[in-house]
């Protein structure tokens, strides 16, 4: 995947948290540095022990120093890890280090030393086992570190499709209860604001999926669309949002349909992520809207099964770094949240 040109006025370096050291995060971070070096500088926040011994590394105390050394060495903000994780073999004792890397990365962004945050994948199970991690996932932890506020919105973005799930990591049986007019309205508003601020879309077009097959088929296959989803979308249209829906989810994602909207809001995790990962498994980016800083992440997990084999592709991480840079530029042009 070729790198996109570095825009004029490119922002400060990016803070890149290492993720789970037993996963592919360290490996793809090295490949990303080898691809970009000083053209898209980032500070890797993790441990030297998890990087190749021959790799040139430049210790830095702040992400702001990354641009001056990235041409010749990987800028590293060192984090202590107590465990002995090996590729594909996580050690619960390393969970506090993984968490500390995320905390430090957020601090770099919030202090202004870094322009944006990109996070390598974590394993929630490893963090729970090793550090009693109390958050459903990365996004919720970042919201906590940002000081709370509305629940952030997760968007999967690629050149082919942008999707947002209104409910995320909950059992499917809980979706109809968790999905409320308030949650759907907040999700759509945050999505529209993020597309405007971070993607430069002055009047974003948002397609909204129905909850039920065929969007309820007039109440014959579920009633949520008739009882409240349609009315909620009508209220948001009255606020000036450009919405279509509720639409049958099974006809929303072919090429002609995708050309009619800028992003799709779906009702639950798989309804959104199956089309996103089918269309762009190696190149989609996880974007978080609703935080007071720019955050992106690769659209894949720790990939323990291939960690350390040298075969992991950095495509999604590279796309995440480029998108973080571009979003930081756009956010600077539009001002803070």
Write a concise synopsis of the structure shown:
The protein has 337 residues and is α/β, with parallel strands linked by helices. Helices cover 36% and strands 16% of the residues.
Secondary structure topology:
Blueprint: E1 14-17, H1 25-36, E2 42-46, E3 57-59, H2 66-69, E4 74-78, H3 95-111, E5 116-119, H4 124-131, H5 138-145, E6 153-157, E7 162-165, H6 175-178, H7 181-199, E8 205-209, H8 224-238, E9 242-247, H9 255-258, E10 263-266, H10 269-279, E11 285-289, E12 295-298, H11 315-334
Parallel strand pairs: 1-2, 1-5, 2-4, 3-4, 5-12, 7-10, 8-9, 8-10
Antiparallel strand pairs: 6-7, 6-11, 11-12
Helix pairs in contact: 3-4, 7-8
What is the CATH homology-level superfamily of the largest domain? Answer: Isopropylmalate Dehydrogenase
How much of the sequence lies in strands comes to 15-25%
* Total separate domains: 2
Listing every helix as H and every strand as E from the N terminus to the C terminus, the arrangement reads: EHEEHEHEHHEEHHEHEHEHEEH
CATH architecture of the largest domain: 3-Layer(aba) Sandwich
Class per helix and strand makeup: alpha/beta
What is CATH's topology name of the largest domain?
Isopropylmalate Dehydrogenase
* Order of the strands making up the biggest sheet: 3-4-2-1-5-12-11-6-7-10-8-9
**Unreliable runs, pLDDT <50, ≥5 residues?**
1-8, 333-337
Radius of gyration: 20 Å
Topology, number of strands? 12
Q: Share of helix among residues?
A: 25-40%
**Class of the largest domain, according to the CATH hierarchy?**
Alpha Beta
Helix segment tally: 11
- CA(first)-CA(last) distance: 32 Å
């Amino acid at each position: 995947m070729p790198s996109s040109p570095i825009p004029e006025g490119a922002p400060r370096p990016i803070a890149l948290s290492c993720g789970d050291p037993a996963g592919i995060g360290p490996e793809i971070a090295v490949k990303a540095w080898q691809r970009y070096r000083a053209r898209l500088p980032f500070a890797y926040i993790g441990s030297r022990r998890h990087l190749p011994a021959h790799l040139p590394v430049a210790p830095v105390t702040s992400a702001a120093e990354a641009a001056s050394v990235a041409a010749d060495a990987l800028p590293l903000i060192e984090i202590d890890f107590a465990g002995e994780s090996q590729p594909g073999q996580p050690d619960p004792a390393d969970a506090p280090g993984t968490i500390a890397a995320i905390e430090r990365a957020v601090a770099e962004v919030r202090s202004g030393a870094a322009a944006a945050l990109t996070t390598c994948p974590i394993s929630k199970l490893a963090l729970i086992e090793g550090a009693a991690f109390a958050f459903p996932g990365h996004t919720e932890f970042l919201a906590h570190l940002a000081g709370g506020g509305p629940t952030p919105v997760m968007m999967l973005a690629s050149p082919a499709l942008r999707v947002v799930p209104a409910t995320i990591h909950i059992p499917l049986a809980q979706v109809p209860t968790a999905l409320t007019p308030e949650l759907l309205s907040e999700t759509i508003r945050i999505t529209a604001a993020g597309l405007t601020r971070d993607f430069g879309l002055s009047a974003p077009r948002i397609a909204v999926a129905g909850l039920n097959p065929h969007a309820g088929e007039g109440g014959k296959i579920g009633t949520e669309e008739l009882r409240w989803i349609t009315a909620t979308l009508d209220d948001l249209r009255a606020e000036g949002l450009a919405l279509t829906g509720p639409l049958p989810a099974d006809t929303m994602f072919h090429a002609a349909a995708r050309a009619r909207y800028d992003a799709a809001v779906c009702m639950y995790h798989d309804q959104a992520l199956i089309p996103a990962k089918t269309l762009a498994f190696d190149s989609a980016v996880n974007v978080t809207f609703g935080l007071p800083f720019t955050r992106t992440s690769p659209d894949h997990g720790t990939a323990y099964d291939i960690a350390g084999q040298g075969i992991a592709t950095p495509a999604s991480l590279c796309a995440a770094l480029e998108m973080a840079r571009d979003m930081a530029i756009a956010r600077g042009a539009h001002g803070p949240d």
